[in-house]
Fold each of these.
Amino acid sequence: MISAPSRNTTSLNGSWNVILDPTGIGERRQLWQEKKTELKTDFVEYSFEGGPQLKVPGDFNSQMSELTFLEGVVWYKKEFNYSISKGKRLFIYFGAVNYLADVYLNGEKIGSHEGGFTPFQFEITTKIKAGTNSLIVKVDNKRLKNGLPGIGYDWLNYGGITRDVYLIETGNTYVEDYSIQLKKGSRKDVLGWIKVNGVNKVQKIKIKIPELDLVYLTRSDTSGLARLQFSSAFKLWSPDHPKLYKVIIESETDTIEDEIGFRNIEVKGNKVVLNGKEIFFKGINIHEENPYKGSRAFSKEDATLLLSQAKELGCNLVRLAHYPHNENMVKQAEKMGLMVWSELPVYQHIEFSDTAVLSKMDLMLREMVSRDRNRCSVVIWSLSNETYDGTPNRTNALAGLTKVCRALDSTRLITHVTNSQAYSNNSFKVRDSLYKYADIIAVNEYIGWYIPWQGKPENTTWNVAFPDKPVFISEFGGEALFGNRNGAADEAASWREEYQKKIYTDQLKMFNTIPNLCGVAPWLLFDYRSLGRMHPVYQKGYNRKGLLSEKGERKMAWYIMEQYYKSK
Ligand code: GCU
């Protein structure tokens, strides 16, 4: 269900009743049945009424002190009334639930979903009843060995119904999905499709772009699919001119409005070109966290807060690490003129030989692409981060995933982030079997922090496999505690700002030695919560590689990066 927010929606956001279930016994108690007492001698050892409430959307860890470290189960309940008119259809839509969701309506299971960062919906047309309906969601954010991500990752595992929840009403046949983007390599030809879902699959379809006086007519076939092909003299979207057009998609039984930008992103030789012009990605890494609240970001305000800092730094790209962020981030980026690097949480240790993992990766990829395929801000799909060449079935699984991604969307760049490079005698040897499938070579390196320099940064040499592919330094940096200054700047263990600043000045010198460098992205914008970062004085459960503290205070390294981007 694409473009959910622009449909006929009823929000279920707000306070939900919850039952905290850290031992997981609620499953055995079958909480979704909401047993009631009948006899005087009856009693029930749970109730959704009279207990705590949590805000939806929002992670549960930051809402109640008992839940700060919870990686387990919370049961949510929302009651609502809905009267559905004849011939209409009704869906329940979740922007994201981290990590496992079991959804019940009026005591009946209507579906489950795995994956904490992509939307899903279930049809409830025949399950809704007149009067009060009871929606119960079991949320479990326990880490799974065969999960995406797996057991180990360096961010706070926020659980909960972390994004918007809507009821969506449609006609009996609705526009389920569409792709309206410029054809690869063209700046005026749109090549796309519309998919309708329902009983009358063969429909007249109209695409309107009022500002261009464009009306394009087509028709869907018996499978509900309509192909699109039209041209116009679009004002192309770019960071400097983030032009969006109102696009109206009309079938005989449904109308959707969207704001779509038209642009082209390609690799030409060893360069990346946007709308035919070479571009250097002035990136920054961002986790989906509101630093001031120490909670999952989800709102338009959160997105504006994070992206405004990226703009102030002088960025033209944000790497939304390490999972698809909420739609507000991607849409605000479009409006603010920021390109987006969107990434799957195929992070480090993944069980690639478990066939369940392969289908989970496939589903998550489809959900990510389906939600954002019309978002011109998204220029790169990153399908993995720091997985290892030697892991059984890893390259085969990710090569297959890359192929599916290209089939789903031929208009964007695709990459895999690696950190398997060898660094010796001040020389980088960059090899990975995945590079064959990637449009750009993305490398995380932390020389100057995790690994000391072996010589002058400006004398670094590089030996990169696929020497004709553009190279992107997708992570670099080091830690510092804001305000920790004027001390020994040559000791990593003092977490001084001067030490972090030196990492940056050295890295910038090294960047001049990298062949085909198409961009860089410091790790990262804000200090953020990660419980494995446990130094009691300097970290306190925060990864301190931010250019900003979690209070938005600029560390000395910020100014090095700001200057560098100004000079590019
Ligand atoms: C890794 C990883 C990040 C992590 C960072 C760090 O490269 O991709 O998720 O937070 O390094 O160690 O801080």
Amino acid sequence: MQLNEIISAFAVKETIVRHENFGGGHINSTFKVTAESGRKYILQRINQNVFSDPVALMGNVRAVSEYIRCHSDGERRSLEFVPTAQGGVCYQDEEGVYWRLYRYVDGLCLDVPECDEDFYQSAVAFGQFLEWLKGFPVETLYEPIPNFHNTPYRYRQLKEAIEKNGAGRCESARREIEIALKLEEAAGVLQAMRESGVLPLRVTHNDTKLNNVLLDPHTRQYICVLDLDTVMPGLSAYDFGDAIRFGAATAAEDEQDASKMRLDLHLFEVFARGFIQAAPSLTKEEIQALPLGAFTMTLEVGIRFLADYLNGDVYFKTAYPEHNLVRTRTQLTLANDMIVKRKEMERIIAEIVAELQ
Ligand code: GN1
Ligand code: MG
């Protein structure tokens, strides 16, 4: 790969002197590149197995970023992408691969909050994201991955993977399959609430991991939300839930010892407070659905990891053969702990609501 050739397709006149892998995303390949001028950029190769129409996807990114710029607190609050020399949103190289370029902003992306305030900041970031976009015409968004958080659909995909047993791994995941299938009914409740219209459709981020928020290394305030690839119509419970499953957990998503995995109720409370404060337009029904969102998003990604393990690791990047199974175990353990702690989550949410009134 000739990075200099790729960069020359964009509207910057730069010679790249250094590049390194950057970030821990499971889907795209990301590089931090440094130009002779000293300026830095983030160059990303868009994974076309996952994102079939990178141009339409970048149309979402552009529309949402511009809307945030007009409706936010005056800070930029989204990364600035560099257009191609022809004014396009991304560049397709001779091999058909799509690339995009962002101006680099110095900041921290954490996998684990170093203090409560870090996690609180990410809650404000994702809460404000929903709030600022509440007037955005949701129906104009392109859906990069249809049924992304449709958990019953994810179950259908899991069952197909079990049926096919493409990688011959069903036997080694027998326990996990059994646990996952037992939880199927509970997993469908949120989707039913979406379909019945109890919960409003919003512009949601859909991948609200703590490491998708950029924090200022000095002030520790959030700078902006990252990774807008999965922005599409969705439920606030998705964004709340995915953030809780990743950031309010006592162990990493791929901790080998799943028994270390629990929901940390203190971190749950820290995040819930920031999120609810930052998004005053949340309805009573949406607020009540937040604990369900945490459980559903955790279980959902658990079965997605499991299906990918059974399919032979064709979707998520993996570092070793059991990686997706290890991830499955942590997520199923966490989802079960959320069932146990459901009442406590609900009590915490009710207390926050009362305190904010
Ligand atoms: C993927 O790309 P990344 O690492 O931010 C995935 C999310 C999962 C997450 C699990 C497009 O996010 O849905 O929750 O991994 N993104 C896509 O860590 O599938
Ligand atoms: Mg990401």
